[in-house]
Inverse folding.
């Protein structure tokens, strides 16, 4: 296995502004790795350096075994990129984009047709593939771009904000598509996003980045577990009594009674539901409903940066 | 060989774009015809212009071909700015081919567009009453290719230094129009005031127009060999410099 991307104190400085501040990142092979952070955190700058389009001010990175500064051409051959903003030509057809990409990346002529067909099956553009890009919808353009990035069978696919500006339904389609792709292809995906949900759904591992620095990195579930803050929400027939009695519960770190609901802050809430139920009935309290809520990555982000990630970004 | 294929791919895209924007081909032929028919006839009637059969209209015919090449190539070179703004440039810039190959492919594509227009204008020589021989036609084509590579290079060079089309008017007034007006496309370059004479000979297009005038009208201010030498050197220089600038310049993914 090993790591397919390793950065070594990679830094990008513009005059007096540090966009990326000595980041060390390790991305294991065949995983989906998310770089999560607000707009302006340095995600795109980081990706730009990894795909050799920007030179680091200091430090370097190894991508698929090649140094991004000294072996830029080899790096470029081993990666596919889907940019944050569109990189399509309105007056060319989808197929022409794929053909052009294949020849720019030196895909041998005899397998080109086959590769294109293979990609077309994956991105399901149908007859649209022979029409000009200007007639495509946003989701189609994105699918075409992702498919294009795969034509030369890259080892690493960079996706910079892959669902930025797409409607929720299209976004879910793209997620499904990315997921299927990682299941069927020998590929590592590094994606940046500022959508918590996206990172949560797709990524095996997430690095949270803010102001050019990595704050923490782990799997989304571990990051959330670290917060140790599941919430068990109950509706009971006698809340005052329940709150009073519940103070005896050792695992309850905090108990609130708000808006007719009792909220108990706990660790690993799903394991504690039976105990809570038993506890209530042993005191003759009837539970009307019970619900466990896990923290989301948003909470993780708030914990580490002290501020909310900026949503929107349309 | 991958570099060659890369050059070919970029050339192909450029040419497809040109052919698909039909309005561009139309305007690029109509504009020179307007110059020839209206300006040529108008000024030709007002002044006495001896020496050439066909008079002033015939005299400016090679100049107007030069002008068409100049405008087409510089503006096509500037289209890189649009490519940058609309994002397509990134797709090319991250491909595993060298920057000089990108510049060469672009220049050849732009040269092809200029050549298509040049050929159409050469075929329309009868409009201004110029006799076109096969030799003159073929040599003119070679000249058009050399001139257009030079100005394609210049257009790309400007594009590599500019981020947005906001500077378009500046480029128009300070680069494109002076090159056109100083080239002797509209007036003979001999017998001018010294300051103007000096400026005229600094303009690379002067040599291009003079060479074409020499081939098509058998009349020139400079030896044909010298003109060819100057425009060839200009083309090489521009392509080298813009290739260098593209290699040097950083381009983020934003």
């Amino acid at each position: 296995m090993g790591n397919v991307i390793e950065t070594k104190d990679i830094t990008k400085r513009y005059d007096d502004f540090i966009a990326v501040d000595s980041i060390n990142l390790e991305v294991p092979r065949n995983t989906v790795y998310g770089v999560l952070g607000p707009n302006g955190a340095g995600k795109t700058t980081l990706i730009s350096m990894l795909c050799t389009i920007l030179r680091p001010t200091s430090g370097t990175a190894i991508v698929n075994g090649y140094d991004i500064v000294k072996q830029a051409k080899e790096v470029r051959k081993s990666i596919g990129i889907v940019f944050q903003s569109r990189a399509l030509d309105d007056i060319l057809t989808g197929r022409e984009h794929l053909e052009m990409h294949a020849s720019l990346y030196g895909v041998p002529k005899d397998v080109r047709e086959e590769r294109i067909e293979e990609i077309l099956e994956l991105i399901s553009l149908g007859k649209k593939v022979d029409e000009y890009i200007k007639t495509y919808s946003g989701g189609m353009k994105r699918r075409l771009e992702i498919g294009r990035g795969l034509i030369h069978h890259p080892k690493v696919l960079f996706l910079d904000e892959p669902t930025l500006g797409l409607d929720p339904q299209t976004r879910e389609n793209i997620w499904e598509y990315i997921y299927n792709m990682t299941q069927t292809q020998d590929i590592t995906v590094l994606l940046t996003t500022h959508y918590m949900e996206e990172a949560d759904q797709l990524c095996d591992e997430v690095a949270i980045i803010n102001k050019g620095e990595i704050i923490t990195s782990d799997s989304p579930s571990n990051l959330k577990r670290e917060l140790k803050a599941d919430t068990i929400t109950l509706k009971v027939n006698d809340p005052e009594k329940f709150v009073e009695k519940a103070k005896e519960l050792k695992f309850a770190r905090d108990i609130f009674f708000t808006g007719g609901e009792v909220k108990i802050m706990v660790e690993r809430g799903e394991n504690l539901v039976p105990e809570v139920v038993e506890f209530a009935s042993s005191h003759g309290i009837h539970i009307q409903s019970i619900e466990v809520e896990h923290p989301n990555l948003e909470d993780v982000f708030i914990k580490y940066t002290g501020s909310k990630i900026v949503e929107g970004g349309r | 060989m991958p570099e060659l294929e890369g050059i070919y791919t970029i050339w192909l895209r450029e040419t497809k774009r040109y052919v698909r924007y039909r309005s561009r081909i139309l305007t690029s032929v109509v504009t020179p015809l307007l110059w020839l028919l209206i300006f040529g006839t108008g000024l030709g009637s007002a002044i006495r212009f001896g020496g050439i059969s066909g008079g002033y209209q015939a005299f400016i015919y090679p100049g107007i071909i030069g002008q068409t090449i100049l405008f087409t190539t510089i503006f096509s070179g500037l289209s890189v700015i649009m490519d940058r703004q609309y994002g397509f440039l990134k797709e090319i810039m991250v491909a595993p081919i060298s920057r000089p190959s990108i510049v060469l492919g672009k220049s050849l594509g732009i040269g092809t567009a200029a050549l298509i227009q040049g050929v159409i204008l050469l075929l329309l020589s009868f409009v201004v009453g110029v006799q076109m021989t096969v030799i003159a036609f073929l040599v003119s084509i070679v000249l058009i290719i050399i001139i257009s590579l030079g100005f394609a290079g210049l257009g790309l060079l400007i594009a590599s230094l500019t981020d947005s089309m906001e500077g378009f008017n500046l480029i128009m007034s300070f680069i494109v129009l002076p090159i056109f007006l100083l080239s002797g496309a509209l007036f003979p370059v001999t017998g001018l005031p010294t300051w103007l004479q000096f400026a005229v000979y600094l303009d690379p297009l002067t040599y291009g127009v003079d060479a074409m005038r020499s081939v098509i009208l058998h009349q020139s201010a400079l030896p044909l060999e010298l003109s060819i030498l100057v425009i060839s050197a200009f083309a090489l220089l521009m392509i080298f410099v813009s290739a260098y600038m593209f290699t040097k310049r950083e381009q983020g993914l934003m």
User: Anything to note?
Assistant: The domain at 3-224 of chain A is CATH 3.40.50.300 (Rossmann fold). The two ends of chain A are 37 Å apart (CA to CA).
